[in-house]
Write a structure and sequence with these properties.
alpha+beta; Beta-Lactamase; four-stranded antiparallel β-sheet; 5 helices; 4 strands; 17% strand
Length: 163
């Protein structure tokens, strides 16, 4: 009887150890990702603000995370109120679609009206994804001046996180 019990315990221990080794070799069910932090959003916004001041531009600067949730919003003095929502929309578009918001503006300009139906898209130039190690961690959106100025200011913000 004792010999039989030892054998059962040995088999159970062998099965347990085999399961432990097998599970250690499997990749984790949940991965990790980089995210834009508040400090990172502040650095992005500060660089964009510095460029806006250099251009004497009145803009709103929005920084969102990779899911499009607002992390930071700055409205420079004298900027039109409506630019707040537009800047957030541009940033969200760049974050959730993982490309500049200008891509959608260009599609519409080229006759692809269906781009207007994309949920959550603000098809206006001035939103750029923030990319770290090939991964979108968030986005910046700028609104208040010409489309080119908005994007140039956003580009200055992107450059701050790429350092």
């Amino acid at each position: 009887m004792r010999k039989h019990m030892n054998r059962i315990v040995s088999v159970a221990l062998l099965v347990f150890l085999s399961a432990m080794i097998a599970s250690a070799a499997e990749p984790p069910a949940v991965g990790s990702k980089q995210v834009v932090t508040l400090a990172g959003a502040r650095a992005v916004a500060a660089a964009a603000e510095a460029e806006a001041r250099k251009q004497n531009a009145a803009v709103v600067i929005a920084v969102v995370d990779d899911g499009g949730a607002l992390v930071l919003l700055e409205r420079l003095d004298g900027t039109q109120i409506a630019s707040s929502e537009v800047a957030v929309g541009k940033a969200r578009t760049a974050a959730i679609f993982r490309r500049p918001s200008a891509v959608f503006e260009e599609q519409i300009r080229s006759g692809r009206a269906a781009a207007l139906a994309l949920p959550g898209a603000t098809p206006l130039q001035g939103g750029l994804p923030l990319i770290v190690d090939g991964q979108v961690v968030g986005a910046i959106g700028v609104s208040g001046e010409t489309p080119k100025q908005d994007e140039d200011i956003a580009r200055a913000g992107v450059a701050a996180i790429a350092q």
